[in-house]
Predict the 3D structure of the following.
Amino acid sequence: MNSLLLLIISIPIIEIYLFIKIGNYIGAFNTISLIFITAIIGVWYARYEGFNTLRSAMLQLTKNEMPVYEIISGAALAFAALLLILPGFATDFLGLLIIFPITRKMMFTKYTKKKSKNFIEGEYEDIDNKK
């Protein structure tokens, strides 16, 4: 619970800090324009990648395969679009990292490393004690 509270408090603090620093460097109007431009372009690109993911999932389903990567990717794209809609440079940067397929795949492989499990194959036979 404490880490969630810390996250909720720290994100706006980081965003306000970045607004002030970037606003001092490029000006207030350019900062606001940049926020709107990144939101518009990011949501448009998230929609484009979402349709590509949906197309890939349909292809997987026609092959009678479970589109696990596409399902996770679709959820990640929805989260990335939400991050891009929120005003701020840090959330936009994280959202853009999630949207691009190369970095999204790198994130997935980092967090979903499969552990190899050892299986012993064999056959068994029930022995009836009443013989």
